[in-house]
Amino acid sequence: MFSLKKMHFFAIGALLTAMLLPAGSFAEESAAPPEEKPAGQPAAKKAANEPAEKPAAAQKSPAVVRVNGTPITQLDVERAVKVMLAQNKIDQPLPPELQKQAESAALEQLTAAELLYQEASKSKIPDLDKMIEQKVSQNRQKFKTEAELVEALSALEMTLPDLEEFTRKEIVLSTYIAEHFQTKASVSDEEVKKFYDDNLNTYFKKPESVKASHILVGTDEKATPEDRKKAKEKAEALLKRLQAGEEFAALAKDESTCPSATQGGNLGEFGREEMVPQFEEAAFKLKPGEMSGVVETKFGYHIIKVTGKQEAAAEKLESVKETIVEFLKKQKAQQELSSFIDKLKKEAKIEKVNM
């Protein structure tokens, strides 16, 4: 079945993920920390859409790239790698060569995100400070205590002011992308039909499946030929009882050695290649209501009863049209955004330092 999960939207996925914290955790950026002033001078509040400064920790870290004069630091890169690996559930630390590749990819994404943020900062967002405050508050509520939040941030070498800064950037970037790319993408009926036809077998075919129950007389790997013979004889005796009229679920509860015995042997619905070959072959040959003979597998001896069957069938275009439209709109927006970032790169001054 077709799912939007199969497509990661570059704008808010690969691009922003590297620069922003994940939406489920800290998906945040921005609200710059107050600038330190000499004693006696109050810290000036940053204008809502003014590009944010680097967090204090990042300011102390050496710059690896300057994007139109704005530094991307080694700490920025390392933090982005940590976030990306955590999101993809990849164990850390990486081997040195893979770490180098990950840092290179992160730097590329950070550079693109910084260019886009600089452009997005030219557009004013009403009530941005209030939006930042609300988003930070939402993230605080995900933790039982302030100490837990601080500890989670520390794992990414971040502070609360850093969280506010990342929140600012996330809101500015996501708003800009939504207004300039996502909402402008349109998809025709012809494009929807073509996508459906081109991907019919990949996304829109419901595979053949069966619903079945079974009774298992199990054997283990250490079973001797004599043990297997006794197990088979028991299964054959159970089959005779079923053929004589005993109720399948009740007998499964009493006699089956499979954990499914507690559900009367019910295995639910399954498709091809989900069971061992001998079991699959026997189950898919049966019609609903039919029962197999004794089937031997590496697990022992089974008696299978099929309770339902779904033939392979294609989903109707109308039932998936809305999902396809959403997918294609995001795909178009992604392509437009990628082209726009390429344009920004050509016009930008990008200087590599300390590489």
Spatial strand sequence of the major β-sheet: 5-4-7-6
Q: Return the CATH architecture of the largest domain.
A: Orthogonal Bundle
The main pleated sheet reads as:
4 strands, antiparallel
Order of helices and strands: HHEEHHHHHHHEEHHEHEEEHE
> Would you tell me the overall average pLDDT?
84
- Tell me the number of structural domains: 2
What class would the helix/strand composition place it in?
alpha+beta
Report the principal-axis shape.
elongated
As a percent range, the share of helical residues equals 40-55%
Rg is 30 Å
Can you identify the CATH superfamily of the largest domain? Porin chaperone SurA, peptide-binding domain
Please report the total strand number as a whole number: 9
Give the count of helical stretches: 13
Write structural notes for this entry.
By secondary structure, the chain is an alpha+beta fold. It folds into 2 domains: 4-187 and 328-352, Orthogonal Bundle (Triger factor/SurA peptide-binding fold); 208-311, Chitinase A, domain 3, CATH 3.10.50.40. The chain is 50% helix and 14% strand. The chain has helices spanning 11-19, 56-60, 74-87, 96-120, 128-140, 146-154, 160-182, 189-198, 200-203, 225-243, 248-255, 277-285, 317-347; strands at 63-67, 70-73, 205-206, 209-218, 266-271, 291-297, 300-310, 313-314, 350-352. The strands form 3 sheets. A 4-stranded antiparallel sheet has the order 5-4-7-6, with helices on both faces. Strands 2-1-9 form a 3-stranded antiparallel sheet. A hairpin with a 2-residue loop joins strand 1 (63-67) and strand 2 (70-73). Helix 4 crosses helix 7 and helix 8 (189-198) crosses helix 13. The longest helix has 31 residues, at 317-347. The protein starts with 10 loop residues before the first helix and ends with a strand. The relative contact order is 0.15.
